[in-house]
Design brief:
This protein has 245 residues and is of the alpha/beta class. β8 and β9 form a beta hairpin.
């Protein structure tokens, strides 16, 4: 079984690709009410995006609920460029036989402009080819650590990730412009469940994973994060996928 967490679709797509290639099932951890029986599983996988060189909070909370298993365990982290020690730190919480990082299109529009369409397509094409290699290694039960950690991974996955989780996940900068039509998509799909509608406009609570889902998938590009996202493009993976993907 392959468990995944995804904001704008990169990790969901990667998990489903791996499931298809390995004859497995991809399961969204945000939709789980109870942990399924894993006693008969021959492999257990985790797929998630890297947030500030670390695993997202819901992934860390989820792995703490996983029982010990004799299954072949692996994790794959999607990232813009590098993963730091995200997978090594995850492996302390849940032992992993194999770990991978996978470059995917940039979706953190608070920090930078998303990739141009041609760049996004090329990254997805390269990722698809790499996933075929990863799937073969998983099926062969080959232990591997194929992670692009980047420079100063200890600093990034330590101090920088700590700062992100304690100071940068604030919701106070979110707001909806006059383009908002009150469709409620952001409230229905927020993984943290922090968005509600008040007078047909989104309102944010305190909990936020900074997954960028509300900003990127808003059909009217009405959601902003302070001045950082104003005038910038948006990204979700769906427009780049063929129907059979």
């Amino acid at each position: 079984m392959i468990f995944y967490f995804s904001g704008t679709g990169n990790s969901r797509w990667a998990a489903r690709q791996l499931a298809k290639l390995t004859g497995d099932q991809a399961v969204d951890i945000t939709g789980l009410q109870n942990l399924p029986d894993l006693s008969g599983q021959v492999q257990i996988g985790l797929v998630f995006p890297v947030y500030a060189w670390g695993a997202p909070q819901p992934v860390l909370e989820f792995v703490r609920t996983l029982p010990e298993s004799r299954a072949f365990t692996f994790a794959l982290a999607t990232c813009g460029e590098e993963a730091g020690f995200a997978l090594k730190k995850l492996g302390v919480l849940y032992p992993l036989r194999s770990s991978y990082s996978l470059v995917m299109p940039n979706n953190y529009v608070v920090g930078s402009e998303p990739d141009r369409p041609e760049e996004a397509r090329e990254k997805i094409c390269q990722a698809k080819a790499r996933l075929e290699i990863i799937a073969r290694e998983i099926l062969s039960r080959i232990p591997a650590y194929r992670v692009e950690e980047g420079r100063l991974p200890g600093l990034k996955s330590g101090l920088v990730n700590y700062g992100f989780n304690h100071f940068a996940r604030s919701t106070r900068n979110f707001f909806a412009t006059e383009n908002c039509d009150g469709c409620g998509l952001c409230a229905r799909s927020c993984p943290a469940g922090t968005i509600t509608l008040a007078a047909d406009k989104p309102a944010w609570g305190k909990e936020c994973y900074q997954c960028m889902k509300c900003i990127n998938q808003c059909p009217r590009q009405a959601i902003q994060y302070g001045k950082a996202t104003q005038g910038r493009g948006r990204y979700t993976i769906e427009p780049y996928l063929e129907q059979d993907q």
